[in-house]
Design brief:
Elements: H1 6-35, H2 43-92, H3 98-121, H4 127-147, H5 152-177, H6 182-206, H7 212-232, H8 236-242, H9 244-254
Length: 256
């Protein structure tokens, strides 16, 4: 998944709460069934089991949250570095002849506009348009270098464009590959279901019918998991916050 929307997050939250509550109810039914059998299980071992599973779940949640937070920070740093490289290229265009300077600055403004558009759409297919734009700007810069006889100003411009292309490539690879592994999500969900089921089992042993604690646990666990998903997978809200460097750069290009 390349991006995630708010309705998807809400739906994921509702499904997670429902799965957690279902696991608790199944645990309660199993606990009641167990109390009707000869030699029912003591409550103390069940309490120990619930505490242990909840501790493991909390550890996995903390680990996943840390990974998602690092992915979010890395995306923000990559966009900032990319904005700095584009800004450097825009200023180095001052060293070019008048006609080339105006042409290069126009292309860089168009590139930032397209970069913001592609970042907001979150579609991998849109990256092809950005790559074609990079090739067009690169060919223009190479033509300038050949025309000026490999002058220092044109060479500096070429180096700035190289930095832009390299940083964009690194950002795209990081955005596509930097995801929490599927196996971690599976372990996280299994532990959550197991934790709520064991809590329900303990409640069934004590004769509990309804538990507001189970509802609170389900909502809290679901909220944390949704928060991890929102940090790990970029969405529209993240775009507005993490792409501020490019937005400010575009404003400076328009009103220097």
């Amino acid at each position: 998944m390349q991006s995630i929307t708010v309705p998807q997050l809400i739906g994921f939250f509702v499904v997670t709460v429902a799965a957690a509550m279902l696991a608790f109810e199944v645990g309660v039914l199993f606990g009641r069934w167990r109390t009707r059998k000869p030699d029912p299980e003591p409550q103390e071992p069940a309490k120990t089991l619930v505490g242990g599973v909840l501790s493991v779940l909390a550890f996995i949640l903390g680990f996943a949250f840390g990974v998602a937070s690092s992915h979010f920070d890395a995306r923000g740093r990559a966009v900032f570095d990319e904005a700095v490289a584009i800004g450097t290229a825009y200023h180095r265009a001052d060293l070019l002849p008048d006609h080339d300077r105006a042409d290069m600055r126009r292309l860089l403004r168009e590139y930032v506009d397209l970069r913001l558009e592609v970042g907001q759409s979150g579609k991998r297919s849109e990256l092809e348009r950005l790559r074609q734009m990079q090739e067009h700007i690169w060919s223009k810069a190479v033509a300038m270098v050949k025309k000026d006889g490999n002058s220092s100003s044109a060479s500096a411009m070429l180096q700035s464009l190289t930095d832009i292309i390299d940083l964009h490539g690194e950002r795209v690879l990081a955005g596509i590959r930097s995801r929490i592994p599927t196996r971690v999500w599976i372990i996280l969900y299994v532990l959550m279901i197991l934790a709520l089921a064991t809590a329900g089992y303990q409640g069934g042993l004590t004769g509990v019918r309804k538990s507001f604690t189970a509802i609170a646990y389900s909502v809290v666990f679901a909220a944390v998991i949704v928060l991890i998903v929102a940090g790990d997978i970029p969405g529209a809200e993240q775009f507005r916050s993490s792409h501020q460097a490019l937005i400010h750069l575009r404003e400076k290009m328009t009103n220097p």
